[in-house]
Amino acid sequence: MALTFRRFGYLGAFLLTLAAVFFAVFGAPALSGTTGLQLAVFVVAGVLELLGGFGNPIRERVGALRLVGTGHVFLGASMCLGALTGSGLVFQALFCLSGLVLVAFGVDYLLGGNYFEAPEV
Known about the structure:
Order of helices and strands: HHHHH
Structural class: mainly alpha
Strand content: under 5%
Shape: globular
Largest sheet: none
Helix content: over 70%
Oligomer: single chain
């Protein structure tokens, strides 16, 4: 089964839904400091994944692989920011390592998808 970009569009919609639920539950005061920055980066990742997953003029102009790759980089950065707010050294190390792996996927997609399996259009 060939991978398609549509799944990244669903991922983007899911990320944006999670961000909206977080804001609805915790409100604006919870967005101070690192958490606010993390959520902003998370939302940018969701938008980029959504734009890369479904057909639109931006995707046609920039390219789906670039949009998804940039979304992965932002999502990985958000995870690394989340590691800063967590407690416990093991949690922080694992969460940061996961984010860096996602950044590696994103950078590979930005460079053309040579090392990791790139989806078909």
